[in-house]
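Q: Sequence in, structure out?
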Amino acid sequence: MSCLLGNDYQKLEGHCRDLSEAGIGILLAVELKAGEVAGLSFSLPGSDLPWDVRAVVRYRRGYHYGFEFLCVTSDQQTLLNSYFKDMQPID
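A: Exactly. Output:
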């Protein structure tokens, strides 16, 4: 992911912990504040197509951050819906 930290964009590596139609949870070893906007790049499991989306930090628990997607294309939304359609809910 890339993020504006101070006056510079920095590329950061993280690990996806959660994924939904509305956003993504990422484990990052960096300090971000709620409301900060980042550019995220990732691929859905089983896909080689990279996603580049803008997202805003909505919450933080330690180094686990919850990002809300700001703009998802209709094609991306269709892929997300298809990806989740075949999954079983976990309680």
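Residues 25 and 31 are 15 Å apart (CA to CA).
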